[in-house]
């Protein structure tokens, strides 16, 4: 399968690479199917690209290597909806915001995206952990890689 992004880039992927978010993700509740696009030149960042509307490309990253204290204990009910009972086997990603005005790059640790890699289904959670913030400054070392 192929997608053409709004910048004319052609992305090739397999049907089994599609991650289904039956509840959508925040800001895009109507989009249900996404793929992860990895590009060596922007690592550790990954694009979460909408399959049905490829203009929707969110920069995400695994928060665990960058934020060593990121160890939330989410409610089991939402994770159960994607066949998990903990974060352990999951792919956990957070949305990154890079303002164009030069302000601090932040990561949304309050609302991680959790993917069951065996079933290729995902969910976005809102954590009840009082330490998690929606605009956690991203350390310069993570941005400059």
Protein architecture, described:
This protein has 145 residues and is mainly β. The protein has a single domain (2-143), classed as BH3618-like (Roll). Helix content is 9%, strand content 30%. It has helices at residues 63-66, 76-80, 140-143, and strands spanning 2-4, 10-12, 19-20, 33-38, 46-50, 57-61, 91-97, 106-107, 113-116, 121-124, 136-137. The strands form 2 sheets. Strands 3, 4, 5, 6, 7, 8, 9, 10 and 11 form a 9-stranded antiparallel sheet that branches. The protein is globular and about 40 Å long.
CATH superfamily: BH3618-like
Mean pLDDT: 88
Identify the CATH architecture. Roll
Count of structural domains: 1
In the CATH scheme, the class would be: Mainly Beta
List the helices and strands and how they pair.
Elements: E1 2-4, E2 10-12, E3 19-20, E4 33-38, E5 46-50, E6 57-61, H1 63-66, H2 76-80, E7 91-97, E8 106-107, E9 113-116, E10 121-124, E11 136-137, H3 140-143
Observed structural traits:
145 residues, 11 strands, BH3618-like, single chain, mainly beta, two-stranded antiparallel ribbon
Concise overview:
The chain has 145 residues and is mainly beta. It contains three helices and eleven strands.
């Amino acid at each position: 399968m192929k997608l053409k992004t709004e910048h004319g880039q052609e992305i090739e992927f397999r049907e089994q690479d599609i991650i289904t978010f039956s509840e959508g993700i925040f800001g895009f509740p109507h989009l249900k199917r996404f793929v992860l696009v990895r590009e060596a030149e922007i690592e550790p960042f990954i694009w979460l690209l909408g399959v049905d509307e490829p203009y929707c490309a969110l920069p995400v990253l695994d928060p665990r290597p960058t934020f060593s204290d990121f160890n939330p204990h989410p409610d089991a009910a939402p994770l159960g909806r994607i066949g998990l009972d903990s974060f352990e086997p999951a792919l956990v990603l957070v949305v990154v915001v890079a303002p164009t005005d030069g302000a601090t790059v932040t990561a949304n640790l309050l609302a991680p995206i959790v993917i069951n890699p065996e079933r290729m289904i995902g969910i976005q959670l809102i954590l009840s952990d009082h330490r998690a913030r929606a605009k956690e400054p991203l350390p310069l070392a993570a941005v400059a890689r």
